[in-house]
Design goal:
By secondary structure, the chain is of the alpha/beta class. It is built from 6 helices and 12 strands.
Length: 257
């Protein structure tokens, strides 16, 4: 059974779920945000990045309907999630990687979601082109920093995920216990530097590795300079309790000892 959440919260969900959920093995939804109406000014990126919060509200409403009408556990499959853009500059700026990371974070907060699929990361739709022409020869080339985001996430993740409280609505972190320490994915969706102090148990002093993806040239149009898109790698000395400084509009992957 498919109940759509493409850019809006549809009342159709309240029709189809009560009527058909008993026959369903799962409920399929799509989660997209739309930057229509967002200007191409740097200050406009902040409300754009906060659009990921809509996924929480939409999924909560689906979960409430399932709790009310389903007599058996019925998982949610987010078979598509992403962003629909009206301009390639909006989509190819590194800030779009921050938005994608926040969507992934919000979806992961819901235990009822069994699977999630980022739609067409490598396909040549104009809103997903990575380093190739979008559909039709009239479309420009594009570089997609989301690809680097998933590389960072794969570098730190493990089968077990822990949520970390930051006390800041614009700073979120995911923790992954690993055999060699702890992996962190930290998202700063503000236009200011932030300090995060990792608190998971078992951390120890030692050498840490990091890969950082930031929006250093936001809205300049990365499709014109695809070589500028990518994460910076570095190491640093870590001690439990020390703050990690995170630049504005960035996603940072860290392997702590």
């Amino acid at each position: 059974i498919q109940c759509g959440l493409n850019l809006h919260d549809s009342p159709w969900n309240e029709v189809v779920i009560p009527a058909a959920v008993e026959a369903a093995d799962f409920v399929q939804v799509h989660l997209y945000v739309d930057e229509a109406g967002v200007s191409e000014e740097s200050s406009a990126m902040l409300p754009m990045l906060r659009m990921a919060d809509m996924a929480t509200r939409w999924l909560e409403r689906i979960e409430a309907l399932l709790e009310k009408y389903a007599r058996k556990p019925t998982p949610i499959w987010v078979t598509e999630y992403g962003m629909i853009a009206r301009s390639t500059r909006a989509m190819t700026t590194s800030a779009s990687a921050v938005l994608t990371a926040e969507q992934l974070n919000r979806i992961g907060d819901h235990t009822g979601v069994e699977a999630a699929h980022r739609w067409c990361l490598y396909e040549n739709y104009f809103f997903t082109a990575l380093r190739g022409p979008s559909r039709g020869k009239e479309r420009p080339y594009g570089a997609r920093p989301e690809r680097d985001l998933y590389t960072l996430w794969a570098w730190v993740r493990s089968p077990m995920r822990q949520g970390l409280e930051t006390g800041d609505r614009d700073l979120s972190a995911l923790a992954y216990p690993r055999g060699d320490g702890m992996g962190l994915l930290i998202i700063n969706r503000s236009d200011d530097w932030k300090a995060a102090r990792p608190t998971p148990a078992g951390l120890k002093k030692g050498k840490a590795e990091a890969r950082m993806l930031g929006a250093a040239h936001a809205w300049s149009g990365n499709e014109l300079t695809p070589g500028l898109v990518g994460a910076d790698a570095f190491t640093f000395a870590f001690a439990p309790g020390e703050a990690l400084l995170l630049p504005p509009l960035s996603v940072t992957a860290v392997r702590l000892p």
